[in-house]
Amino acid sequence: MITAFVLVESERTALATLGRKLQQIDGVAEVYSVTGAWDFVAIVRVERHEQLAEALAENVAALEGVSRSQTMVAFDAFTDLDLDRLFADGS
Is 11 helix (H, G, I), strand (E, B) or coil? Predict the structure, then answer.
């Protein structure tokens, strides 16, 4: 499983609606509205790098209201949660 964290800066006029639009993209597991230099953090979980590229280039970047984005791909996870089991169950 590939996990990526996508930081998204929104145009002011899209702040109220962009979070839901990001959530509807295939592969996006969670979206958070955050404080600071970025407006949203989207957590993307996909099986293949091609799916990540599609989610980012064809979907996030193409959304009306996205000013810019920055993606960080996770190399490893340090957690007590069994993430594979958690997401396989759909919980």
Answer: coil
Q: Are 41 and 31 in contact (CB under 8 A)?
A: yes
Instruction: Quote the DSSP letter at residue 43.
Output: E
pLDDT-derived band at 90, boundaries 50, 70, 90: low
Q: Six-digit token pair at 21? A: 């639009």
Neighbours of 71 (CB within 10 A): 15
Inform me whether the pLDDT recorded for 41 exceeds 70: yes
Calpha distance 91→87 (Å, rounded)? 6
Tell me the C-alpha distance between 8 and 52, whole Å. 15
Q: In this structure, how many other beta carbons lie within 10 angstroms of the beta carbon of residue 46?
A: 19
